[in-house]
Fold:
Amino acid sequence: MLDTEFHISTLIAAQIQGTITDAQRAELAVWLDQDPKHRLHLEETYREQVLNEKLKRYERADREAIWAKTITKIQANNVEQGTATVRMLYPYKRKLAIVAAVAAVVCAAVLFFYNDAIRPSQNVHKGYQNDVAPGAQGATLTLTNGKQIKLSDATTGQLAEEAGVRITKSADGELIYEISGSDKKLNSVNTLSTAKGQTYRLRLPDGSAVWLNAGSTLTYSANLNRSYDGKRYVMLVGEAYFEIAENKARPFVVQSGTQEIEVLGTQFNVNAYADEPAITTTLMEGAIKVTDGRRQRILKPGQQVANANGNLQLATIEVDNVIDWKDGDFYLNHVNFKTAMRKIARWYDVEVVYDASIPDDMEAGGWISRDKPLSQVLKSIESSGMVRFRIEGKKIHVIK
Amino acid sequence: MKKRAEYGENDLMESFRGGDETTLAFFFDLHYKSLCYFAVPLCQDTQQAEDIVADCFFKLWQNRTEFQTAQNVKAFLYISCRNASLNHLRSLKRRNAAQELYFSQLESGEETILYQIIETEVLHILSREIEELPTKCREVFKMIYIENKKTDEIADLLGISVKTVRGHKARAIELLKSQLLKQGVSAVTLLAFLFLIDRP
Structure:
């Protein structure tokens, strides 16, 4: 009883405090869409001035008076029933005691779980004895209503039917969106995210294909529509390769931070990881326009634009270095060593620790499949003789 | 995370069912403000509302063996509060305009009451967050946002400088929002995204 109301109130409180998560925001959006009265409630009840008045009234309750009345009722009842009078203490000090007791239990539980979690890595292996398996296909799909589907576990076939959209998983693991019903309410927001060590491929309702690399998030509405200009629109954090179905009437826009890429129909890669110094956009086929604020660049195939804080730098590059991940490889020729290690860290979900002797401007080399365990990738890099590695739990130590 | 929370709660509920009066005090402290906030407008009478709230806690204690979760306790308190308020309004020979309005809403089972529950719970959460602020911070925050006091007035009252008051105010806001910063770019960009996609 009242479960929905209690849950919605936590969402609204999170929204007011600005602590709302993406999933919660999506859940709240569903509730707001259920009934215009819901939206009215949200808009009218919590405006700043009103809220202060309400909080003031909320704090006004007379604690002592109500507590005294409560105890009186209980004791009167006990006397009536002939049961022994319960010693009802004034709650202050007792309250502290119980809070402390609960806190102690929680602390103990935290310690218990924490110890359990770190036990395996307490066995420190030298060298390559504890290897790390490569990443795999997998992702989490979050629907507008907050429902999360783990795509690695989900069986093939229909996963969800959302207002006018059918979401299915094909036999080879591709996530497919199809517009099935009328085109009302297709603005529901979906988020596809991969953890470190995961990669995923999806086909959007316009027929465009997207490969999502490890540790990345793609956010899109089911009809891909951007309200003010009708363009197809998605948001990316992390790295993805796009094969955009041609539609001259509705250009496709990929937003990362303040950067926008606009295309008609083409293939390109966007690397917008937060831990990279720049957002890099690389074009394979067709033509694209990259915009950030007032700066703008038009790319030809084989060109890459690096966007560091709105500064757009155009260069011709080795395309294989960029889309290696999509083809299941690490292509490390003429790649900055630390950039290469960031790629590896995302795929094997490990942390790289550098010895002070490793310079920033060193180049990596070689080529290896991403299907291999971590040890083989590291060995192939080691064979260059520049560095040596030591795996310790989830950490790779790099030494000269 | 959930497991740990449930462990603590199970413990609490067991003590409650077993008749440990400190757990009643715990639930009392957790909910008395919410129930008052909820009942006062329904009754349009603070004294009456306090009686009703006390009665709800009394009933809760009488039925303590029935409750499995802390959320059951909360739901029970709200529902009994609603019912008791309705009974009170029904017993009145004359009702003023506001009482008449609430009475008809309650009798017809209108959902307005659910919005009032949501609103009360939101205030409950915000109030508890404010209580968690460091002492001086909290005092200043409450004086500004709840008591609508001016900066120099607060400086006088607390015997601190205007600059310090401003510092506490800024820190309070920062602490309340710190979760947002921790979440970083994703929350902000998603917000932007939600503004851009079309609405029905």
